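User: These chains co-purify. Model them together.
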Amino acid sequence: MVAKQNTQQKILDAAQSLFAETGFNDTSLRQITSVAEVNLAAVNYHFGSKKELIQAVLQRYLRVLMARLDQEFSRLLAVQQPNNLTQVLAVFVKPLLELNSVHNNGTRIFLQLLGRGYTDVQGHLRWFINHNYGRVLDKFVLLVQQSCPQLPASELFWRLHFSLGTVVFTMASNEALAEIAEADFSEEVDIEGVIQRLLPYLAAGIAAPVSTRSQPQQQLRSGT
Amino acid sequence: MVAKQNTQQKILDAAQSLFAETGFNDTSLRQITSVAEVNLAAVNYHFGSKKELIQAVLQRYLRVLMARLDQEFSRLLAVQQPNNLTQVLAVFVKPLLELNSVHNNGTRIFLQLLGRGYTDVQGHLRWFINHNYGRVLDKFVLLVQQSCPQLPASELFWRLHFSLGTVVFTMASNEALAEIAEADFSEEVDIEGVIQRLLPYLAAGIAAPVSTRSQPQQQLRSGT
DNA sequence: AGGTGTTTGAAATGTACGTTTGAATATCCG
DNA sequence: CGGATATTCAAACGTACATTTCAAACACCT
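Assistant: Joint model of the four components:
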């Protein structure tokens, strides 16, 4: 069955889990090639460098995800009247869960990797994602903008990044959180359940009323 | 004036900025001692190890912050009727901004460090914080519980961790976000502004209506 | 001033890392 | 089959890291 597996795939499979759990910089090629049961030099032979391996690991998911998201976004944009924010956010659910067909636990792994990409110092990853898929993400921003016309662009910018943080951190700590939740509330936790819990939180946060006072009531400064 | 500065303080000052910007694991003692203009061996002499230096850097802020938070929480708990959620969250603002008197940009540095503590793999830091200050944080959870009596305990658990993720991720990416915001919206971004933008987002997310449907309408599984 | 304990300094230790090399092996195709 | 190409392998390279060592410099005190 699984007799002969491609070396490149063995590397990608080993790397994605290690990267997701330990971060990019704290995962060594020696760990990866050891888990993958391939020679140390194989990474540089097949991918060129560690940096390019990181991109390849993410690309496996991004290609699938972004194509699906692009479809969904275009579909919603074609509708004449603006869409409900909850509907717009819900569009992520199916494409994300379909990543489970790329690999076991693909959804969780991808979201963890995304988190690592933003918190580890990986400038090349931010550039890589924005350069390749910025066009798709712009559609999403446009959709949210249409469903929240009262939100200033700068406020929207911040809230979308707050939301990215919410998702990414939650997924990064998923294991620990799930354990606690199961122990304290005896509820079983899967990735889909977490996503369903996230949606109302995110929708409410993004659409929160804009504070009328742009300056806080009391300032507190050091020095001067 | 600043003629003779304590070696320990020179190390702490240099370390906190480098840790905040580059993360704990990606900052070397050589960088720190070079910026601090002290000998490489000084870190191990004064702090024992890099791990203990990390804790010392955080401790400088945690000691001050947690004492102040404890006061505020106790004060709110003493009030008979439950407090408004926004009020409870707003309690963080002043103690956080007072960290600017611990050091220049203390608030920003501390929050970035906190973010690093949760995203870098620093198990000892999670333990360190919980062990030393878990009692204070429990008061906060109680306050939120009182102000959102309609929220089931499990839902509250998830939403508080969502919120932690929002804050921590935002602070970890603070620099990059601030740059973009300044470029795209030509608005100056300081840490207080970010905190003031966070509050309504967090309050709305935590208090979001609880979805009546506990099971999502469509499932999607890989394999079976 | 002189002796004691604390702090600094330059150098070395051992380990781990990403990457490169060149020979050995496997795979492919006429 | 046989020669060319693609892949694997063990070993080494150069670099960077945290930590240790021990002698020199310093600070403090009677």
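Chain B has eleven helices and no strands.
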